[in-house]
Amino acid sequence: MSAAEGPLVVGVDTSTQSTKALVVDSATGEVVASGQAPHTVSSGAGRESDPRQWWDALREALHQCGDAAREVAAVSIGGQQHGLVTLDGRGEPVRPALLWNDVRSAPQARRLTEELGGAKFWAERTGSVPAASFTVTKWAWLAENEPEALRATKSVRLPHDYLTERLTGEGTTDRGDASGTGWWASATEAYDEEILAHVGLSPALLPRVVRPGEVAGTVRDSHDLPFAKGTLVAPGTGDNAAAALGLGLRPGTPVLSLGTSGTVYAVAKHRPTDPTGTVAGFADAHGDWLPLACTLNCTLAVDRVAALLGLDREAVEPAEHLTLLPYLDGERTPNLPNASGLLHGLRHDTTAGQLLQAAYDGAVHSLLGALDLVLDEDADRSAPLLLIGGGARGDAWQQTVRRLSGRPVQVPEARELVALGAAAQAAGLLTGEDPAAVARRWDTARGPVLDAVDRDEATLGRIAGVLSDAAALLERSTDAR
Ligand SMILES: Nc1ncnc2c1ncn2[C@@H]1O[C@H](COP(=O)(O)OP(=O)(O)O)[C@@H](O)[C@H]1O
Ligand SMILES: O=C(CO)[C@@H](O)[C@H](O)COP(=O)(O)O
């Protein structure tokens, strides 16, 4: 038996690049054991992963947790948002999942927006104007490009739903992740039958939306996992909503997450409805809202630039005249799905370290441009930015965010805030507490605060200028794949 003070819970983050599992003491928040296993994401024109690999990665990550995972009383899965998982009548994937960063459905996003009343309609109805990331556009893409796969589909799930269902045998989701589909009306908090009918998707194929605090099910058998049959399974949620829980986030505190995606968000009491589409009006996992802006190019894009230059990711030098828009995967914020990377200001004396710094600047610029938009008017604009995700561990990322935001930056010591948020949700099932309150009790946001420095307005202005002057180039696809 473990020496934990309270029952153990498991929190899982099944994100783009890997699955991470934490075994956590629900009394103290101490991480008793952890594991991580990688995923494979396709390259080329699309971004796809085999959902069965997520399950294998979950098993492997739990295996790494050792005996502690055998004692858990509750489990919860947080996961990458938006991915379209199509299952046949036996619950097997019909094809690989289409991921959030697959921009092939950009034409469908544009068309659906026009066909159903325009950006204002979508924002009022669903909270968001659909970009290529949203599940509804992927379903429309599948209908056009692989009708036989569509016909074979007997249920439609998001990544976290898929794993939860494999645990419980029941098709469930939650409001946080449902709000990123494009077929969940944030105005009524229900599936939107008009949108579903328009894209030819029967609501019968969709999972039940479990309420915050409700049990999604129990582990149906011990499979080849360490859990006992009957272990409680929480609703789970999308990874950003899970991290918001994991930080015990209160309205008005901004978060900047540096992972495969870059995201900036805050919890809000008011339902967001941004008709420009910059801010997605997601629901959070406990009854409030999570206005959020997301970039497709963050840590992977900057790491790719470092690799091309043969540099360590920390080997940056100040880049005063150089602009690099690192849109290697197309981009969502700003909405330029056809874009590719763009460099301006290259000279004979430009160094590799300056090029790398310019990539960091370009990636952070997109996120900070949306920061004020996700905050309510009454939010304290001098409060520290909470910096999370794998990139938050890097000095170059921390210093770039500090310089370009002009705000204090707090870096929580806890590393896996998505998995911790899922663990807090599982703990809340046992104690009846609000999961965000559990996370605050665990003091998960604790970490050093880096003082504010003067905002580097010159760099922000230069990047904005290049973006605007290069608008036509950035709309143009260079894709010969
Ligand atoms: N010490 C570090 N310094 C800077 N970046 C890091 C460090 N460790 C990991 N990363 C970055 O973190 C990224 C993974 O972040 P993570 O939040 O786990 O991604 P995701 O949840 O999207 O799978 C990697 O792409 C890597 O670039
Ligand atoms: O699309 C979004 C948010 O709208 C992304 O934030 C995904 O949820 C993927 O997250 P990571 O794997 O980068 O954590």
UniProtKB/TrEMBL annotation:
Binding site for substrate: 81-82
Annotated active site: 239 (proton acceptor)
UniProt domain Carbohydrate kinase FGGY N-terminal: residue ranges: 9-246
PROSITE patterns in alphabetical order: FGGY_KINASES_1 (PS00933), FGGY_KINASES_2 (PS00445)
UniProt entry tagged with the keyword Repeat: no
Protein origin, superkingdom: Bacteria
Biological process according to GO: D-xylose metabolic process; xylulose catabolic process
Catalytic activity annotation: D-xylulose + ATP = D-xylulose 5-phosphate + ADP + H(+)
SUPFAM superfamilies linked: Actin-like ATPase domain
Cited Pfam families: FGGY_C (PF02782), FGGY_N (PF00370)
Entry GO MF terms: ATP binding; D-xylulokinase activity
Claim: Ribonucleoprotein is one of the keywords in the record: no
Entry's transmembrane regions: none
CDD domains according to UniProt: ASKHA_NBD_FGGY_BaXK-like
InterPro entries: ATPase_NBD, Carb_kinase_FGGY, Carb_kinase_FGGY_CS, FGGY_C, FGGY_Carb_Kinase, FGGY_N, Xylulokinase
HAMAP family linked: XylB
Function description: Catalyzes the phosphorylation of D-xylulose to D-xylulose 5-phosphate.
Name of protein: Xylulose kinase
Native organism: Streptomyces humidus
Organism taxonomic ancestry: Bacteria, Bacillati, Actinomycetota, Actinomycetes, Kitasatosporales
Gene for this chain: xylB
